[in-house]
Amino acid sequence: MHNQLPSRQEQILTLLLSTKSGLSIDAMAEKLAISRNAVQQHLSGLESQSLIQATYLNSTGGRPARNYVLTEKGINHFTKQYSWFCNLVLEEMKHEMGSEAFSAFMQRLGRKIAASLEGQFFGQNANEKAQTLTAIMHKLGYQADIEQQGDTVTISAINCVFHDLAQQHTELCEFDRALIGHLLDNPVEQVECMAKDGCSCRFVTKT
Fold first, then answer.
1. Contact 155, 133 (CB under 8 A)
2. Where are the alpha helices (DSSP H) in 4-144?
3. Which of the four, 19, 90, 127, 146, has the lowest number of CB atoms within 10 Å?
4. Shortest CA distance to 94 belongs to which of 104, 84, 83, 85?
């Protein structure tokens, strides 16, 4: 699971995951064999992290019963594995298209994403574009830095957001090259690649 919580809180989240309508404090106390006060303390911690929320169910006795349910953040707390499915899709695409066409597809995809971002670069000079690009890469999950020496700009990322997939499908790197080249409006050369045992992914262009 992400962001490891105390074991009791993890147990409460698991209980709520299996009970979509939610559970009352008394029900949780019974299932976990702990006191009602202990449950309330754990619920307070989970609520403060926006992992759970209170909901109310109408009861025949007149007073609504208070239950707790997972929030979307609480549901997303549980580990999800997407890489195996992405790898399956990519394998089938490359098998159907062939490696060359698959590379061209990744280039088109990179240019398409770049087109949706190019408004942020309007009116900027080459150096400003490089700075804006680095900021966008950070938002996308890259730990990227920029270095400028004369008319040469080097963008380095010490992580790859799809590293495991790129090791099996190096054509994915075409996406990065097309994205960066389009946004900087200059040809880009990738001089180092983590998927090919490099220490970082480095892209070089001219201003």
1. yes
2. 7-17, 25-32, 36-48, 72-76, 83-97, 99-117, 126-139
3. 127
4. 104
Q: Which of 43, 41, 36 has its CA nearest to residue 16?
A: 43
- Torsion-angle region of 163 (φ positive above 0: left; ψ -120 to 50: alpha; else: beta): alpha
Joined together, the tokens standing for residue 48 give: 């403060």
| Tens digit of each residue's pLDDT (9 = 90 or more) over 82-138 | 778 899 999 999 999 999 999 999 999 999 999 999 999 999 988 889 899 999 999
Question: How much of the chain is in helix, strand and coil states, percent to nearest 5?
Answer: 55, 15, 30
Q: Which residues of the chain have pLDDT under 70?
A: 1-5, 57-64
What is the b/e burial string over 178-191, where b = at least 16 CB atoms within 10 angstroms of the residue's CB? bbbbbbbeeebebe
Q: What is the pLDDT of residue 135?
A: 92
